[in-house]
Design goal:
The protein has 504 residues and is of the alpha+beta class. Helix 2 packs parallel to helix 7, helix 3 packs across helix 14 (448-459) and helix 3 packs across helix 16 (486-499). The strands form three sheets. Strands 4, 5, 6, 12, 13, 14, 15, 16, 17 and 18 form a ten-stranded mixed β-sheet that branches. The protein has helices at residues 5-11, 28-40, 90-111, 134-147, 162-168, 170-173, 195-208, 258-265, 288-291, 345-348, 352-364, 366-376, 380-387, 448-459, 464-474, 486-499, and strands at 17-24, 46-49, 122-124, 127-132, 157-159, 182-187, 191-193, 212-214, 217-224, 230-236, 242-252, 274-285, 297-299, 313-319, 322-332, 400-403, 407-414, 418-422, 425-429, 435-440. A hairpin with a 3-residue loop joins strand 17 and strand 18 (418-422). The chain has one domain: FAD/NAD(P)-binding domain (3-Layer(bba) Sandwich), CATH 3.50.50. It catalyses: (S)-malate + a quinone = a quinol + oxaloacetate. Its EC number is 1.1.5.4. Pathway: Carbohydrate metabolism; tricarboxylic acid cycle; oxaloacetate from (S)-malate (quinone route): step 1/1.
Amino acid sequence: MTATPAQNHADNNPHVETVDVLLIGGGIMSATLGTLLQELQPDLKIAVFERLSDVALESSNAWNNAGTGHAALCELNYMPEGKDGSVDPAKAISINEQFQQSRQLWSSLVEAGVLDAPSTFINSAPHMTFVRGEKDVAYLKKRYEALKDEPLFAGIEYSEDSRVINTWAPLLMQKRRKGEPFAATRVPAGTDVDFGALTRQLVDRLAENGADVRVNTEVRKLKRLSDGTWSVKYRRTIGRTPGEIRAKFVFVGAGGWALKLLQRSGIPEISGYGVFPIGGQFLKTSNPAVVAQHKAKVYSQASVGAPPMSVPHLDTRVVDGEASLLFGPFATFSPKFLKTGSWFDIVGQVRPGNLGPMLKVAWDNPSLITYLVGELLKNHKKKVDSLRTFMPTAKDEDWEIIQAGQRAQVMKKDPEKGGVLQFGTEVVTGADGTIAGLLGASPGASTAVSIMLGLLKTCFPDRIEGWEPRLRELIPSYGDTLNARPEVARESLDETAEALALTA
């Protein structure tokens, strides 16, 4: 299409600032992509826009997620039991491979002085799975048998002995009912990650190296110009001052608001997508006597009808150097796509292209609605009662409720079902590769490096080959897998553990 004189004038406005890369949203995804690009091509002009008063205040904030460092060591939803009773480790191995890439990049950045001391954002916390009842015990044993010889799961332990489990996590065993079948697995090499601290450190270094980081800056409109660049209209949240910036490439890493901004961009690839917001709450204790007895992240099976992100777990957390325990999550509902979003988010997303898939998802998931209603009816006492299935000695007065982040689960078209609810992350990219955005939730933060590596290949196909030598320096397993090479896997795990000061 030929541009009109008015369009040409608008596209070449010399008074509008321009950048090579605009990152919308100050979370771990934007921080990771910005860091990679700055390492690969330092002369790129990068800008980061965050609508809140600081970065990492939404999904990447330490109190808005469990900080597990998802490596599929303990999360059962990455390895469900098949209808024939079999268990396939493929997805669990894939998730672990992705987390190892994150560990490798963080190790490289620690050694280069880009990141602070490892203990400021990552700490050792064994990953455990604990189940009750004969059916789940049989499943967990099959899962253990399928994983114990996989190189990335080296060191996994299994036990049905209360005395052994008591040495792993005493709070699980104290006053446990006798005769109840139970079992646990444990991987000593698990971690607890403060993605808020990690994000802040990465963004601080981006700014030190020349990136233009702006908080209190909300993107309002995105328009692709005839020269292939993007005109992005924004507004300062303090003073309401409007502005415009031009970018050759735009990444939308705005959590739940990514859908809204991608819709405003007008790219046809976003048609058919919607999101379903699910909030969460955790029980938290900082009682030193309780915290000292539990040094692990313990996951179990999800309730019937519950989404995978609602798998109950009792977690060691280390935030700003202080240890505490979290239990949850308990699902909540809000029409907002972010904790600081709009009450109209859930209806404002509706378009002709996504209405059908969204209605089909609602029709096909009555158990999810039932689960959410049941969760909303739980008061503090009932939440602590749920905790007692993990920790029989839990006292109401030791635990407080904290509000976690909003998770916007992907709904999208499906050629067979009409519409599906997807519990993962997905990158949506414009046809010409000049804009991309991330939708979805877990295991996003833990696999941010892998997700952004995939984005680099898709959106920068003419540069990726030249970047590969530097990528292999930063991430030694780039372009290959670890699990298929036992010796290499062992060396990589040992090297990143040493660099990140992790002790099993």
